Amino acid sequence: MIVGLGIDVCDIKKLIRPLKNKKFLKRVFSDKEIEYCKNKKNAILHFAGRFAVKEAFLKAVSDRKDIPLCEIETVNNEFGKPEIARTVFVKNLLKKKKVKKIFISISHIDSLSVAVCILEK
Ligand SMILES: CC(C)(COP(=O)(O)OP(=O)(O)OC[C@H]1O[C@@H](n2cnc3c(N)ncnc32)[C@H](O)[C@@H]1OP(=O)(O)O)[C@@H](O)C(=O)NCCC(=O)NCCS
What global pTM score does this model have? Predict the structure, then answer.
């Protein structure tokens, strides 16, 4: 049963300045996410996609309290499919919300990235 749905769109303009700030970068993105994006031709678009995933996930769980954004980590599997890593933080939150599966999808166009997140019980 679907118990949560979230969507977010991120304009790269919103991230151009913050991404120059190391503190922001480390607070919002995991080391793996930073490495993934920096290896892409248009890094900022991939950062925007990951940012959109974080916001979409938060909407899906409807919980914003004390959530460190870097703990909501997107990883791509061997086929490129994005997934949310089961960090300790995510595991605990899912347990609390009784969520078994997370589905996410990302798409980019020009200067926009969009992400959706579905939670299943
Ligand atoms: C996967 C694919 C459809 C992406 O489409 P696109 O129009 O080039 O790019 P979009 O901007 O819409 O999407 C890019 C995002 O797709 C996601 N993606 C990549 N491979 C994926 C896959 N196998 N399954 C699901 N999502 C995938 C990624 O999250 C990527 O963003 P990221 O690199 O920032 O994480 C395209 O690369 C493709 O056709 N690949 C070959 C066939 C394939 O593997 N298809 C699987 C889905 S049908």
Answer: 0.94
